[in-house]
Amino acid sequence: MDRPSAKPPLPTMHEASLAIEVIALLERQRNTLSRITRIVLDIGALGCVDEDALRTALLTALPGTLAEGAVIEMHTTPAQARCLQCATVYEPPDRIEPCPHCGSARKQWLSGQSLTLRSVEGTPR
To answer: How far is CA 120 from the centre of its chain?
Structure first.
């Protein structure tokens, strides 16, 4: 019995919107690059972004742009927070994890919640 081939995940509206925003940032490189060959993104561990769906959305949206055919590299950025009670810096596994030192739920997020375009490589004009 043949197994059905694995299909790429369908991008959600969230990932499709993120892909459009990334492409808008890439298009700003038009004055300095004739072609974008590599895109590097940092995705926060608690950023609510499905990496596979974002990749699919980008691959769907890139044709016809400056970055058509570009390599897409994604890295997960760990979540890091500073406790506002005792100043302990820790890596919570979720948004509600209290400080492991004092138990306070009050925190300042330092990383791990955003999507960042880390770098772009391409052919200079």
So the answer is: 14
